[in-house]
Specification:
The protein has helices spanning about 15-30, 40-55, 70-85, 105-110, 130-135, 150-165; strands at about 10, 35-40, 60-65, 90, 100, 145. With about 170 residues, the chain is of the alpha/beta class. It is built from 6 helices and 6 strands; from the N terminus they run E-H-E-H-E-H-E-E-H-H-E-H.
């Protein structure tokens, strides 16, 4: 069974980098609906097309918006709720609780032009932790910080084992 079967997910920053890879991965994992939000509509439409190739049955809405503007945020939420009949199961926005580490993205290359991006991780290689956090398996996980490029799975299993002992 797909880990995200039936879930409606809103992703900001979905036009490139990690946001794009999460949209693709969430589609592969069975998301029923994806609301893809970013400031660049042309790139966002390309991501939508890529998602449709992976998951033709997924309900996809693209919203060109800037999350730093309150009116845009209201429009994002209203549009997404209308599209998904009032249900948003997962919101991916400024993912501060997950440290993705050094990734080969346009934003990272611009921020650190002196570094060699060939040494950085591909964003597609760190999406497992986001799928886990979006799935029902993470219902009892609260207040954790994850390092996406490290062995976060063993941390979860260790904590679950310790909780069973107590």
């Amino acid at each position: 069974m797909s880990k995200l079967n039936g879930k409606n997910i809103l992703i900001t920053g979905a036009s490139q980098g990690l946001g794009r890879e999460m949209a693709l991965r969430f589609a592969r994992e069975g998301a029923a609906g994806l609301s893809l939000v970013a400031r660049h509509i042309n790139q966002l439409n390309k991501v939508r097309d890529d998602v449709r190739k992976l998951s033709p049955k997924s309900d996809i809405v693209v919203i060109e918006a800037d999350v730093s503007k309150p009116r845009d945020v209201e429009r994002i939420v209203a549009t997404t709720l209308a599209q998904f009949k009032g249900q948003i199961d997962v919101l991916v926005m400024r993912v501060n609780w997950v440290d993705p580490g050094n990734m080969n993205t346009a934003m990272h290359r611009a921020a650190e032009p002196e570094e060699d991006p060939a040494e950085w991780t591909n964003p597609a290689d760190v999406t497992d932790v986001f799928v886990f956090l979006a799935s029902d398996a993470s219902k009892n996980v609260n207040g954790k910080r994850f390092q996406a490029q490290e062995d976060w799975k063993s941390q979860i299993h260790h904590e679950e084992h310790e909780a069973e002992k107590n």
